[in-house]
Design goal:
Low-confidence stretches: none
Helix content: over 70%
Length: 71
């Protein structure tokens, strides 16, 4: 169900997408760091691949929001 707070977040995200790209970028950096730290002998383990996938998703979302056209 929609609340007033979630409706305000949607309005803020559509009006200022560059601001909302920052948390996604920070999470992408964090997940990349954790993926590098979790790769001990090989990168082909589940935790490293999952962390790298999360980082890729976060970077993709951050760049999509950052380069979104202004309204």
């Amino acid at each position: 169900s929609w609340t007033a707070a979630s409706a305000l977040e949607v309005v803020a995200m559509t009006s200022r997408p560059r601001l909302f790209s920052l948390p996604y970028f920070i999470l992408g950096v964090l997940f990349t760091y954790l993926a590098i730290k979790s790769a001990h002998e090989t990168v082909w383990n589940v935790s490293t691949i999952a962390l790298a996938a999360f980082a890729a998703f976060d970077f993709g979302t951050a760049f999509r929001l950052f380069f979104a056209p202004k309204r």
